[in-house]
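Encode chain A's predicted structure.
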Amino acid sequence: MPCYSIEGVIPVVDPSAYVHPTAVLIGDVIVGPGCYIGPAACLRGDFGRIVMHRGSNVQDTCVIHGFPAHDTIIEENGHIGHGAVLHSCIVRRDALVGMNAVVMDDAEVGEQAIVAASAFVRAGMKIAPRTLVAGVPAKTVRELSDQEIAWKQEGTHTYQDLTKRCLASMQEVQPLEKIEKNRPVLAAPSVEPLITAKQA
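Encoded structure for chain A:
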């Protein structure tokens, strides 16, 4: 993985975490046990510290940065969807930040809360635990159901499983020129989109 020190501060990655080789880690970045960092994610700890706690994930093309002396923290089982941007904020335990959402300075995403895809969480906003926020700017929509929280937890567990799968088998290869006979099926655990789960 591209990993850079700045002024002698070197990123820290727990051996049980998986960081994709195209992700970039700079400076004061601390990645805890069982974490996942996806392709093309950028964690720039050249101003403020960035901390990922146990079992959290940061998916493809996410950007994480912050102001000097302002930590950006993702607590245990935090789940950061594709393309999200976090800046000097806190994502509490078991919370989810949806795809392409932006969470600004000194904002706090409460425990088990969900920030909807493409939402803009303004600077200083405090999102209550177990609530859904959506929109530009983000506003509280409602309290989350037990089903929605369980769905989020299941999704996070699939990324924790993916961490193990990547550590065990991910490798760079040349593509095949045609589909092989009896092409194998991935051993990923089964998880459905929330809309499918609600219709069941």
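Residues 20 and 152 are 23 Å apart (CA to CA).
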